[in-house]
Amino acid sequence: MTDPFVLSGHTALSFSGGSTSGYMLWRVLQANGRENIYDNLKIMFANTGKEEEATLRFVRDCAVHWDVPVDWVEYRDNEDGFAMVDFATASRAGEPFEALIRSNCDLCFLKPVGQRLSLIRDRPERVIWWARMEREGVANATGQGAVFRADAPSYAQLATFAQDQGELFDVEQEPITCFCGD
Questions:
Q1: Residue 127, CB half-sphere, CA atoms under 13 Å: how many?
Q2: pLDDT of 21 over the 50 cut
Q3: Which residues lie across from 83 on neighbouring strands?
Q4: pTM tops 0.85, yes or no
């Protein structure tokens, strides 16, 4: 059986900055010699500007610790359509995403409502940009008040709900000792 991580020619690897993507990159690096990696592998990280700071650090640290070049790219609404950036110059306020309105990020509209609500409770400041994008970006594109998903509450509604609703159960409650196989 051949190793599926061995490069057999020029290869572009999209590194999302997530742990699974990092593992895939590590497996590719382990399966190939340094010369094959430098001759045939192009590693790219597409920053939307809405990644968590920890994700940006992880991408930078993988490149440094594994001694491989990772090209950071961001969408631009210009003739080239993109810009090359690095950890220091990467957007952190959603600029590339705002220009394109496409995401898989901190409060991505593709995440379930419950997960987004939990993330908003954890860090309420996350919702500000998303609510503004709905209010301005999506509404401007459609000519009416719009939301990313018609089957879910708006980000403004989620923010209000997260602020107004308390926790259903006391998360600090001490467990009762039992002997039923806990």
A1: 22
A2: yes
A3: 74
A4: no
